[in-house]
Amino acid sequence: MKSIKSFRLILPMVVFVLAAMVSSCDKSERGLLDTVPDSAQAIATVDFDELLKNAGCQVKDGKYELTPQLTSLLGNSDARSFAEWLSRFSKVVDLNHVVIYMMDKTTTIGTVSVTDLDGLESALTHYDLHKVDGRDGYDIYEGEDGSVAMLKDGQAWFARKADYVIKSVKKAEKDPLASLVGVKEFLLTEHPLNFAYRYSGISFNWVCGSVALNDNIMGMTIKGMDDDGKLLEFDPLFGAVNTDFLRYTPGNTQLAAAFSVKADVPWDQALAILKAHPGLSMSQKGMLEMVFSQLKKIDGTVALTAAPAAGAPALANFSFSTWDLMLMAHMPQNEVNANVSQLVATARQFGITVDEENGVYHANLSRLDPSLGDVYVGNVDGYFAVSTRPFDSNSNNSLTQVFQGRGGAVALDIPYGSETMKAFGLPYGLSVTLQLEKKSVEMRARFNGTNGSFLSSLIDMIQKMN
Prior knowledge:
Blueprint: H1 10-21, H2 27-34, E1 42-46, H3 48-54, E2 58-60, E3 63-65, H4 68-74, H5 76-89, E4 93-104, E5 107-114, H6 117-126, E6 130-135, E7 138-142, E8 148-152, E9 155-159, H7 162-174, H8 181-187, E10 193-198, E11 206-214, E12 217-225, E13 255-260, H9 267-275, H10 282-295, E14 301-308, H11 312-315, E15 323-330, H12 333-349, E16 354-357, E17 360-364, E18 374-380, E19 383-387, H13 400-403, E20 408-414, H14 419-423, E21 429-436, E22 441-448, H15 454-465
Antiparallel strand pairs: 1-4, 1-10, 2-3, 4-5, 5-9, 6-7, 7-8, 8-9, 10-11, 11-12, 12-22, 13-14, 13-20, 14-15, 15-19, 16-17, 17-18, 18-19, 20-21, 21-22
Helix pairs in contact: 4-5, 4-15, 9-10
């Protein structure tokens, strides 16, 4: 045995794992997509070489060298086997253009163009895949566990069973993914990773995403799309976020999320879809109904913020006493006042002392639970507002550019050297923004406190926390 068995069919497995964590376009890749049926449940196009470069891997004298961090994470033996596999297969298949697709939850197929047929056949034999009787024009190489590599017309497929490949390619001959022009073109955009996931939405059929890696920054774009390529537009559902809530958001806030809901959002239709899920219990359905009854009242911006309120040892335990939380939701004034009155009345029924000053009510809930503390509730600037700290309209932060003009956004910022970083045992800080644009969701992420590329820093962090 020249190498460990786990690397016999590592091509589809490794690529798919990298795709889940986080394509360049030419004739080769277009041909690969032509063999994918439009009934596939998920498809990814991957520039494997670009991912490896961002992960810090290098090629010297025709051989791949892994970073010390990746070697430590995999273990010396597996790391050597992986580097050897990369060095051998990169010479015989085009790792710059790899397609992974799933027909269902249990059927994953990887396919790639062959650049050296003799070399590939030799590599397969080296990894204990031996040629068996061919079918339907395919040369089939099978491993001891039944996994197969199949060759035909300059293309290779990797799967658990030969039937998976043969059946899916036959389906593609009749109904190819290429007939879904919008999805196909999205998968062919020039990024190291693109993916499309079939989803039965209200007005779209696919969730399409792409990942870009620019040194130490990872960007992701996600769009909803129908079979004809028409994009889901968010304008009918969301207005621009009112940034007034930021006046009450302190500068040490590490998580802020807000979106602006229009009054005519089809909440009943969304609730019906969620309640139709067969895995929900009656109590869960009841909880959904309660949540949606409040969502229906919203007629503008909803915001949630969180800031550290305690030292490093306690921050890992989420509670009202360790994190300062604030919720602000704009509703009709009668609904705001009704919600405030109901909460105050409920607290007093439990024997909690409730004070009032300038329309804001205060109570300490620690007698109910030691993890609870001060809570402030009131009608603040027309918002139903709940907070674990007093409302201060003179707070100062730098989040306006994240939220202004967007239908929604999320900002996460864990500074390097912060108590939060120490509490969770992180070697670096982390900054992430997620913004809702007119036809897409845009995400940007980077690590704080390191100059390494994004994937190499991610691998380093996982290795240090392992």
